[in-house]
Amino acid sequence: MDGWQAEYKSKPAAQNNAAPGLAFFHIPVPEFSYFDESNRVGVRQDPISSSLWNSGFFSSMLDDGDVKAAFVGHDHLNDFCGELEGLSLCYGGGFGYHAYGLAGWSRRARIIVASLGKENDGTWGGVNEIRTWKRLDDNVFSTINQEVLWST
């Protein structure tokens, strides 16, 4: 273990009352390769292009305890979500027309919604649920793969 990893992991764990966190980064962590057809929602049409060296970033997100879902891009023909050790790992899906695609596969964008609860006095409370789905750029802007990533 190098010094950076040890230093990062030595940070105190998140408070129990911390808001659920979402992480966004471009290159998938190696743990994305743990998913197959039996434990994911969506498709995998590209190899997982993560680093061959595991930095421990996934473990650090677990240790901190507040990150509930992580979202990546990079592999434009992957659009799946899977859950590993209570943390959802999701691809955004290929959206832009300037990047490579696949004939007959509609471009798509992942939508993420964090729903807030209401307190007894009518004020907004904390996050109750994090949901996601994909919107396709087809002739009716279809919605596919709706799922709840986290809820209280």
What's the helix and strand layout?
Elements: H1 3-9, E1 21-24, H2 57-64, E2 67-72, E3 81-84, E4 87-91, E5 108-118, E6 124-136, E7 143-151
Parallel strand pairs: 1-2, 2-4
Antiparallel strand pairs: 3-4, 5-6, 6-7
How would you sum up this structure, described in words?
The protein has 152 residues and is mainly beta. 10% of the residues lie in helices and 34% in strands. The strands form two sheets. The chain has a four-stranded mixed beta sheet with strand order 1-2-4-3, covered by helices on one side. It is globular. It starts with a helix and ends with a strand. The relative contact order is 0.18. The model is unreliable at 1-15 (pLDDT under 50).
Low-confidence stretches: 1-15
Strand-pairing-aware structural class:
mainly beta
Can you list the strand order of the major beta sheet?
1-2-4-3
Helix count, DSSP H or I runs of 4 or more residues: 2
Give the helix level as a range of percent: under 10%
Reported for the largest beta sheet, the result is: 4 strands, mixed
Number of separate strands: 7
Provide the gyration radius in Å.
17 Å
Distance between the termini: 35 Å
The ordered string of helix (H) and strand (E) elements is HEHEEEEEE
Can you tell me the overall shape? globular
Strand percentage lies at 25-35%
Give a short overview:
The protein is mostly beta strands and 152 residues long. It has helices at 3-9, 57-64, and strands at residues 21-24, 67-72, 81-84, 87-91, 108-118, 124-136, 143-151.
